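Supplementary Methods, section 5.1.

A reviewer requested that the exact input to the structure prediction be made available. We therefore reproduce it here, unchanged from the version used in the analyses.
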Amino acid sequence: MGRNDEETSWIDDAFDDKKAAREEASSGMGGGMKVALGAGCLAAFVLIAVLVVLAVASLSALASA
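The structure derived from this sequence is encoded token-by-token as follows.
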């Protein structure tokens, strides 16, 4: 009835700072790549916001016509 290490290791992984630091260092994702990823996410968010605004504007124009 006792738990083995394999059974609970996935729970402890989220709180293992040393393991997270090792994985981040070995992932090879440099600072420039992180900036590019952040800029891409920001651009996607802005694009979606603009599309939502345009959709609401066109629906309000149709409703008033």
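The two ends are 71 Å apart (CA to CA). These observations are discussed further in the main text.
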